[in-house]
Design a protein that fits this description.
Layout lengths: L1 E4 L12 E3 L2 H8 L5 E3 L2 H32 L3 E6 L6 E6 L1 H12 L8 E3 L3 E3 L1 E10 L2 E11 L1
């Protein structure tokens, strides 16, 4: 019997998946607990429309990520920080500060957890950062840390 899962079911699939299970498992476990619905004509049409909507959203997100990568690839961001003698900073430059600079300079809002910086930035100089925009889509930025 084919069913469409309403919730994640261990060993079967995630919510929204179309899975084939035994008749007894579906009738005695999945359907009474509200974990799935039988894949009849109405449920299948809803499933197909949800799948097409999901695909459309993924395409739009991918397109937006490609546009953001075109804006950001190879760009240089200047960050100012206070430092002491020997070119060392008081503290360090974090991905949060890089995300704020991206929003300020390019108008692109990116979560700080999607910014990967090579090592810790504790001295003045030039560094590289990788911004993960979408799975398999990333942009490389150059960070220039200058004294205030």
């Amino acid at each position: 019997m084919q069913v469409i899962l309403k919730q994640d079911v261990k060993g079967q699939g995630k919510a929204g998946d179309l899975v084939k299970v035994s008749d007894g498992y579906a009738r005695n476990y999945l359907l009474p607990r509200g974990l799935a619905v039988e894949a009849n004509a109405q449920a299948m049409s809803e499933y197909k429309s949800k799948q097409s909507a999901k695909k459309h959203h993924e395409e739009m997100e991918r397109k937006a990520a490609e546009e953001a990568r075109a804006k950001l690839e190879g760009k240089t961001i200047k960050l100012k920080a206070k430092g002491g003698s020997g070119g060392r900073l008081f503290g360090s430059i974090t991905s949060k500060e890089v995300a704020e600079a991206l929003l300020r300079d390019f108008g692109i809002e990116i979560d700080r957890r999607k910014i990967a910086i090579d090592g810790d930035i504790k001295t003045f100089g030039t560094y590289t950062a990788l911004v993960k925009l979408y799975p398999e889509i990333a942009a490389t930025l150059y960070l220039v840390v200058e004294e205030e």
